[in-house]
Every structure is written in C-alpha cells, then in structure tokens.
Amino acid sequence: MRSFPGHKSTGQSNTLISNDDRAGRSNDLMWNDLNEHAQRIEGRHILDLFEDSSRAEAFSLSAEGMLFDYSKTQIDADVLDALVAMAEDSGVAARRHAMFSGKKINETEGRAVLHVALRDPDGGSVEVDGADVIPEVRETLSRMEMLAEEIRGSKITDVVNIGIGGSDLGPAMATRALSPYHDGPRCHFVSNVDGADIADTLALCDPATTMFIVASKTFTTIETMTNARTAHAWLTRAGVTPDARFVALSSNKEKAAEWGIPEERVLGFADWVGGRYSVWGPIGLSLMIAIGPKNFRDFLSGARSMDVHFRDAPLDRNMPVLLALVGIWHNQVLGYATRAVLPYDNRLGRLPAYLQQLEMESNGKSVSMDGEALKVPSGPIVWGEPGTNGQHAFYQLIHQGTQVVPCEFMVAAQGHEADLGHHHELLVANCLAQSEALMRGRDLEEARSKVSGQFEGAELERQARHRVFPGNRPSTTLVYPMLDPATLGRIVALYEHRVFVEGSVLGINSYDQWGVELGKELATALGPIVAGDQSADGKDGSTAQLVAYVQKNCG
Ligand code: F6P
C-alpha cells in the first residue's frame, strides 16, 4: 500500500481547465481517502464480497455490446465513490470536452489531440486554429479508399508496411486481429532496424508484385528510412522501377516529396494525430488494403460508438473511466507495479505490445503538466500474452509468486471457428477459470487433502505447502460478442480513453513522448563510433568496452 505524504493536486497543472471547471481542490485529501480505504480492505477476501448476491452486476458495466466485469477486485461501493470523486475532482469531464472540441491539450507540443475526429468523418465540425478539420478527414479517408481499392484490384500480391512504433503497432495489431476479414493482398510489417526484419520479409515477396508503404509521421525516423532505402534498392536490383511501388503516409509531405514519392501516393495527416493514436487515419492504410474499405469503416464506427459512450456517459457508468479507475486503484493506490493484459483471443497476439506503447509511452512520465515531480507512480508496466499460451509459461508467478499482478482478461463470446468443434468453449472456460482461480486460491487444508493419499507426516505438510495458492488476486474481464472490425475498434478506443482518464487524474500530458529522445540522440552519435570512423574517447568505460568488443568480433 502506498502513502501519499503531501500529495500534490496534479489536476491544478492543467492550464486548459479553468478553476471554475474544477470540482474542488481537495486532491490531496482524495488520495489520502483512497489510502485509508486501502488500509480498511487489508486482509479482506474478494470472494467474501460475493456474499452480496448483487455484486457481480453492481461492479460490472455493459456498454456498446460489451461487458466489463471488475467485481473480482477489492473495489466496493465506498472505494468506487472515492475513485469517481477523484476523477470528478481532477477535471476529467472538462478535459474530455476540451479534447473532443479540438483544444490544444497536448500542451508541451502545442497540439490538439483529435484522433477521435478520424473516426467521425460524417460528424459535425471540429475546429483547430479556427478551421474545421472534418472536411479534410473526409477527403483523406476517401483518398485512402481509392488507393486501397486500386492496390486491391491490381496485380500486387504483397504489401509491406515499413514503419515503427505507432506507425507499425496499430496496423500490425489490427491486421492480425482481423485476419478472418482479409480479402486483399498479403500485408507484412517491417519495423526493426535490424536487417533481419526486412530480409526475412523480402524473402517472402516477389519484387514484381510487391508494394511498399512508408509509414512515418515525421518521415525522419532512422529505422523507417533505413528500411525504406533497403526496399528501394531491392526493387532496383530486380529491375523494377521503384517510384510506382511506394506510398508514403506522413505529416511531413515535404520530406515524402524529397524522397521522390509522387504526390498522388502521399497521404498526409495533421499534427493533431499522435503516432500511437494514428491507426484510424492514413497509417491504417495497410489494414484497409487487407480488409477492404467497408470493413475499415466498420472499424472506425466501432471506435466512434465508444467515443460517444465515453463523451456522454456519466463518469460512474462510463467504461473507459471505470477501466482507468480500476487501474489507478491497483497501481497508484495499492502499489501493484505491473498489469497483465491477457486476451483469450489468439488474433489479439499483438494487443499487449500495442497497449505497451499506448499506455507506457503516453503516461510513463515523471512530471505533471506544470513540470512538477509526480507524487504518485505514473503508471504500471504493461505486459501480456494471449491465453491459453501464457498459462503454460508465466501464470505460475501470477498465481503463486510474491507479487500481485492485476490481470485484465478479455474474451469473445463467439469465435470465428464455429466449425472447429469445442475449441472456443475450451478457450472461454480457461479464461474464466483463471480469474476464478486467482480470486479463490487454495488454502493449506485443501492442498493437504489433494496430496493426502500420496504422502504422510512431515512430507505431506511440505508437499501441501507447495500446492497452496494465496488467492485474493484481482482481475477484470472484458467480454465482447466476436472480434469483428467494429468490436476491435471499440476495444482499442476503450483503451485509448482509459489512458486519457489516467493521464487526466494524474495531471500528465499523455500526448508527448520526450523520454524517447535521449536514446535516439546518443544512437546517432554512436553510429560513427561503432563504424570505427570516430574514437570512443570520452565515452564511459562500459560503452567504450562494448564498442571495442563489437569491433573486434564483427568479422
Ligand atoms: O520514438 C517514438 C516515436 O516517436 C513514437 O511516438 C512514434 O509512434 C514512432 O516513434 C514512429 O515515429 P514516426 O511515425 O514519426 O516514424
């Protein structure tokens, strides 16, 4: 459990939210209040909370066809009230309004945050700097559709998206998630500057029928530009004129033009689309090519439905808000350092990686909006793998390790493989069994009875102890009808808004990422040193030693 001596009201740092919009300046008291609840519930067993037969329903929320069940946590009515009060006091509602109406809530970069506009091409006007952005959203979407249809109707068999971070994870995650809807060319994703990535991908492709999408908001990212040059050379070597085989997706149209990509093959997007929020616009082109414009529109509409829910539902009946508050309870209040995302949906295999960027690049900060040090942890380490695979790997620690890992399960009511007998029932049963086991646990007495026929005396006692599960471990479960394009859109938008709420409560700017810069600068400086063109003098002993080893052993 955490204590918050002198916790600062992080909400005060949000200069876009007027004092009038703030429900009160009692933020310190609210953290202390939550802290007291944490002490109050110590030693209580989650299972006991189900003596109240209305608990499951009371601590669940149905919205947009999905069910979010957070009843297998220690949250009770008083904790929930305190968490919702915290969200109210932090100005979540005012900040949400500011985001939807195009205010520049990304204050360190002076940018609006309007990925929500990308999924509302037929919506009313949203102004940034006095200009309505919706006509541009509509026009870009229709250019994407024309280009996607042109590529889908051509001889192209393989499309390679070259991008990294948000210019890779979104389309890669969603393209895999929606594989039952693929009816276009095969889509591949190359991100790593490690030549192994592009080499292994090109080995699967024929230069005569392969198209490359260079996806980079800035069009300067070293990994992407290096891979794009390698792809260019690969086509040239095969005697294929590269120009007609490249599409650029970027906010930096000048750089794309410098690269020689014809204007009609450059799809631009505004600076109010953050990289990790960009799958809904041009960066989603590879996904659109794979599943077709109609399915892509369904993906957008699903996300839009979650936007409307998030925008309009009261905070205590609002799925992204509740998901965020459960996370805040576990991380900032109870001090659980990590969060496992466990989709029982193999096609969501890239979702944990996607959510790592979404959550950790957005909220992994040390200072609040006004530059003051945060007094509470900024957010958990997010990790995970699809079930049931994780069960046979790391669930041991989740069940019996000394650290509590709040788990977020997700599963579809229906799979796409109805013809494969009872696979899906087994999948669902495993998902539900894991959350039940985490909560229920197994005490020593039960463990003894499990081994009583096999061992006796002290050995029985020793063996039994190894079979004890502490239980009382929290989890949430999100259930949705089926992983179709609209549902995927809803799930991703749900998580995006969760990150927004977490950031608002903590007073963090979730939309910059200064923490990635230092490593990039040092890598640029180290390039010529590793190549042997500059001396490692002035580098620390460890770095110099590692460079020397590489140079000696590079063959
Ligand atoms: O280095 C981090 C980052 O800037 C991410 O925020 C972004 O998604 C990724 O790099 C790729 O950037 P770009 O789309 O400009 O190539």
UniProtKB/TrEMBL annotation:
Keywords attached to this entry: Cytoplasm, Gluconeogenesis, Glycolysis, Isomerase
Main location: cytoplasm
Keyword Cytoplasm assigned: yes
EC number per UniProt: 5.3.1.9
Enzyme class: isomerase
GO molecular function: carbohydrate derivative binding; glucose-6-phosphate isomerase activity; monosaccharide binding
Disordered: region residues: 1-22
One Gene Ontology cellular component: cytosol
InterPro entries: G6P_Isomerase, G6P_Isomerase_C, Phosphoglucose_isomerase_CS, SIS_dom_sf, SIS_PGI_1, SIS_PGI_2
Catalytic activity: alpha-D-glucose 6-phosphate = beta-D-fructose 6-phosphate
Any one Pfam family match given in the protein's UniProt record, by short name: PGI
Biased composition (Polar residues): 9-18
Position of the signal peptide: none
Gene Ontology process terms (BP): gluconeogenesis; glucose 6-phosphate metabolic process; glycolytic process
Subcellular location: Cytoplasm
Active site feature: 361 (proton donor), 392, 520
Record pathway: Carbohydrate biosynthesis; gluconeogenesis; Carbohydrate degradation; glycolysis; D-glyceraldehyde 3-phosphate and glycerone phosphate from D-glucose: step 2/4
Function comment: Catalyzes the reversible isomerization of glucose-6-phosphate to fructose-6-phosphate.
Family to which the UniProt record says this protein belongs: Belongs to the GPI family.
Name listed for the protein in its UniProt record: Glucose-6-phosphate isomerase
